[in-house]
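So, could you explain this one?
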Amino acid sequence: MVEKAMLIGFCFDKSEEAETQLLLTELEELVDTLEIGVTGIELVRVRDTNKRFICGTGKADELVELARARGCDCMVFDNEISPMQQRNWEELSDMTVIDREEVILDIFAKRARTKEARLQVDLARMQYALPRMARMWGHLDREGGGGTGGGGASRGMGEQQIEIDRRLARKRISRLKAELEEVRKQRATQRKERQTNNVATAAIVGYTNAGKSTLLNKLAGADVMEADMLFATLDPTTRRIELENGQDLLLSDTVGFVRNLPHRLVESFKATLEEAILADFLIHVLDASSHEIVDHYHTTRKVLGELGADEKRVIIVLNKVDRVSDPAILNGLRADFPGAFETSAVTGQGLEDLTARFTGLLADRVKKLTYRIPQARGDVSGLIYREGKVLETEYDGNDIILIAIVPNSLEGQLGEFLEEEDDREQEED
């Protein structure tokens, strides 16, 4: 079991040093999430990329000696390293060597709860492991040795085992893709039902640990896992809330984003993030107390762009404002994000204004109308009660008069029962 790690980030341009340092700080948080102790962080400047180690051989030897001196049993690279480079580092150091992608995959594996999330994680891990299988069996090649009597070289035991394992891995990847496709079909069916019912949807997006799950819980009285940790929840969770005009809104939480999120993970988690693609609008939650809020904003927008969801209507939410005590910082945030809602999902600050904004954004989907319905037509009044929100009920002889907020889709079905306001005013006169 890995207990101590040294983190390494390679910087190829002096202008990128600050960004590389920020990424290493984030990597430290990611590694800490796996409960691995960090003994040191090294930012390494590299002029020319070396195919074998990324850096030169001399610098590689130096880093290995530094890791040994610190008592490390693992080296973690913030940069993506190829299977060959990973194998070279492990042979040089006799330590476990991983990169940012493998760290994130391990965290996802710990966090996955639903069948869908587990399938997505398994698929991403198998796709990551497939090209790295050679390093698992290299020792068997060395044991296999020489040729046969015919003079041709025999294939080593390691090579045979690699081929078997790769074939099994490809079969498993195909099976996982098929299972995941079934889950996606089920989710698509659920979405069609929502669309049939004409229920508005919104997706809560943002950087990991911005408070998305806490916000969902506060708005919907949900019980989604929330914690002050990266990737506290991976599973898409949808909850229904009722807006002040009686309209229903489905709120969906989504997996948090990080910088340099591996493309493989974006692909694997598209099913989770489809809520963002198909939503009527997005609620982009930002941690107002974070010093890196602007970078987090751009990272999320970049991933949304990769998903094709960057053209959606967006409500910006500056969450955790209860943690910002300096007025100057708050004024700076207001300048950077004009029109953003200042909230605290913990105290409830600003949530009333936020939900009012939801109502305004969806106002064109509903109308306030008056219906005169014969009491014998319980099916009609029942439909209005189910699909709309009844504000007032009156009785006039054998008729029921309902003043209700109804979705536009229902207006056409109930046209014959619609009572014009002029008619009601004449009756009242």
